[in-house]
Amino acid sequence: MKKKLQLICVLLFTMTVHFGYAQSKTVTGTVTDENSLPLPGVNVIVQNANRGTQTDFDGNYSIDVAQGDVLTFSYVGFTSQSISVGPDDIINVTLGEDAAQLDEVVVVGYGTQSKRTLTDNVAKLTSEDIEEVPVPSIQSTIAGKAAGVQIAPTNGKVEGGVNIRIRGIASIGAGSEPLYVLDGVPLINSNESNNGSPTNPLLTLSANEIASIDILKDASAAAVYGSRGANGVVIITTKSGANRPATFSLNYSYGVSEPTNLRDWLNADEYVELFTEAAVNTFGQDEGVEYINGIFDFLADGTDWQNREIDTDWQDLALQNGHVQDATFSMSGGNEKTTYFFSGAFNDTEGIVTGNELERINARVNVGHTFNEKFKAGMNLSFSRTNIDRIANDNAFVTPLQAIAQPALSPAYLENGDPNPNTLYPNFLLQDKHSFYNTVIKRVLGRVFGEYRFLDNLKFNSDFGYDLYYQNEDSYTGRLAPFQSTNGEAYASSVGTESYVSSNYFTFSEVFNDIHDLEIVAGMEYNQSNRRFQDVTGIQFPTDDFQTIDSAAEITSGSGAESANSFLSYFARLTYSLYDKYLLKVSVRRDGSSRFGEDVRYGTFPAISAGWIISEEEFLRNSDVLSFLKLRASYGETGNANIGDYAALGLFGGISYNQRPGIAPIQAANPQLTWESVKQTDIGLEYGFLNNRISGEIDYYIKRSDGLIFSQPLPGTSGQANITKNIGLLENKGIEFVLNTKNIQKENFTWSTNFNIAKNNNEVKELPNGDDVVSGQTILREGESLSAFYLREYAGVDPDNGDALYYINEEGGGRETTTDPNEANRVILGQPYADWIAGFTNNLYYKGVDFGFTFTGNWGASIYNGGGIYQSANADYFDNQSADQLDRWQQPGDITNVPQARLFGGNGTATSSRYLQEADFIRLRNLTLGYTIPDRFIQEVGLDKFRIYFTGINLLTITDYDGYDPESTSDAGQGVGVTFYSAPAVQTMSLGLNINF
User: Fold this and answer.
1) Who contacts 6 (Cβ-Cβ below 8 Å, separation ≥6)?
2) Pfam families of this UniProt entry (predicted)?
3) Which domains does the chain possess?
4) pLDDT tens digit sequence for 121-152
5) pTM exceeds 0.85, yes or no
6) Are 973 and 154 spatial neighbours (Cβ–Cβ below 8 Å)?
7) Maximum Cα–Cα distance across the chain
């Protein structure tokens, strides 16, 4: 009997195995959208099993399943679909599109929200918008992609700062940069440069690790960040794994760079001609020729200038062709319990300015694990190291761009090949050969997080984030470098800033009676930042081969400082929708900051917004034309805390008196100093037509910044020069328009377009006592735009005698002219901020070929050439001149804007609108052309994707501005909207490849 039972069991097992193998099979198919277009990258997951796959570029998939299994097909922007496996071996799926991506998920503070039900103004960018743009800065990759967001590099240096303005400038005395939040961690974003020009702290981030960027533009969206949201909030989310087999991605590109524009300068013949004429006009024929020939002898440094032995192109020496090399590798995947994402990146950039280079490495690991149905946790961790070879700031004689002031008669090198030390101004080539300035930035960013779900509708999140920004700067100036009077000088500094943040919050979400959708978020956050700085300078080195401080014979200076600040915050947000069409959101944040006065350290920042999805009403629901229509409005208050850590305190500092130590007051106290308050109202309309083939939004906003932080002068008897106070009112108001179109949607051809344009009016409403504040070429005046240009008005040239003329501009309104610039009154003649900004992006796909490009445009801004009084001064001094100075006045009756050439004559060189120009431009910001090899050619070698591509940055600029670049401004603090020997933007052309396997 026992043997029979054994035999039956064996037979049953054999039949079961045979049955199981008989039921296992391979299912294939194609996933398309409603227009029969293939969808690449769709997740195909077997429910309740640890396996899945993705569709390829043509929407095809293949997976081993058993009959009865359930396949789930999901794709961002489309509704998910689940299908049971039957007897068929082919399952083709059509996914329906969400309402024109209006159902896409956007990241907001401490959570996410559907774009469709969002009552705030949030611009969302995905990894597709920022990848494959060969620039070191992630900010530059999003230029032109978001309405009302202006992004401009300071100049063409590899480490140069990037100016981001969201709906204009919200502050005068405090910072104007937005708050950056990466995976819930507020980022350190302080410039720590010590050579006079700023660096961009976000250079440490790599675009390959970013999944999305959400820009919170209105106060309702940003108010949950309270005291730090006045300039907008940029939320960066890094990539994560998914429930699918491991996938690998490799991207490599190499490109060459050059300046976007070169200027024409006088060659040797033209220089001799113009300056001989200038000397004759000043001293007379014989004396003038004799004098200037002596100058030419000096400039030529022993070479035969009369036969033009030397004709140096100094611009060609200062600017060069550079290169950009990018390599990234990532791996992602996971199962239903654990997901992971690993990435590494390398960037090598040689700048367009001689001696300027950058090298960066990045590594990231993101891991998430679900322990059970109630608890999940994870970790994000990244490291980067950025090494920058830097040059001097724009205002330094030894910076390469100031070489354009050298006359073409001067040789750049001596006969032995060494740089020529006998030039009109210090030869930057000596600085390049005998000196260096190196900056190394190391950054560690990390976050650990946990989520515990008490009930289906109640969960608790606890996050701990850490940001360590550590920077070393080392420089050495050799004994043969310009301005070096000792046997070498070395400088070394280090700064370490660490910020940690602890966030803890509850989220309750529930749908009642299928019509009331409610979510409540409430929690607290603590953020602590500590900074430590120290530097030392030493001189007298035994030889230039020893270049570190320990070899200095004498330590001449040193300093050190420590500072800290903290924020303690409580926040809450409620979102509610009725019938999925009537929307409401209320939020509040209570912030306390150590930076402000002890009496006013806490502030409350409320916001409210509402929306109405009109297209859900009965009278529009069945419209064949209108697909989506939402009206929304919001009001909120945010703050600006971007001031020094101890600005409200009365400070004392150590001093030395007769070599005895002591202390002295160095800062006046103001216990009432508090944050700037920004109150913003926004009204928006979102729309979609023809099944959302046409969609977009229109917004109108008013943003008022009250309690502006100013440094107010104090009487000398107080013992202090100034005090920091809350005084002043600033207003920005404007409109934004976004239009998205799907122009063509065919099986083998798609074409989509995004167009956005925004207008912003900026006005100073109130100043202390109504008084003007003049700074250099700009002014703050009630009723005028911020930092308006305040200049003498240039009136051209007197055609009778070649004198430069200026408008007197008397209060009576007369337009009489004078040759004496001291008689001309300064008037407002322009502004440094654009009235209009726009972006225009197109993406086309045709049978494996992809083509995309983005144009950006700015209108209404002006730029002042601070170097114009030297560069374009009709031969006033010996600086080489821009070629347009050859159009000078020479005889009575000449009509020109260039006065007569007069050496030392000051004819037209006064600071005036002569050197002010409109900076309007349209720029082809980036262009990409790629080709993906069909699957049938690559699957045999185990690849999922093989794509080659070309990318171009700043390939075309249309402008009437005749300087180097309408976006490049000084990095040496000459004022807003002022350029001063500033490097032009970079034009880059790269070839690259993507490989997925």
Assistant:
1) none
2) CarbopepD_reg_2 (PF13715), Plug (PF07715), TonB_dep_Rec_b-barrel (PF00593)
3) 22-97 (2.60.40.10), 139-260+319-787+831-873+908-996 (2.40.170.20)
4) 999 888 887 776 777 777 777 888 899 999 88
5) yes
6) no
7) 135
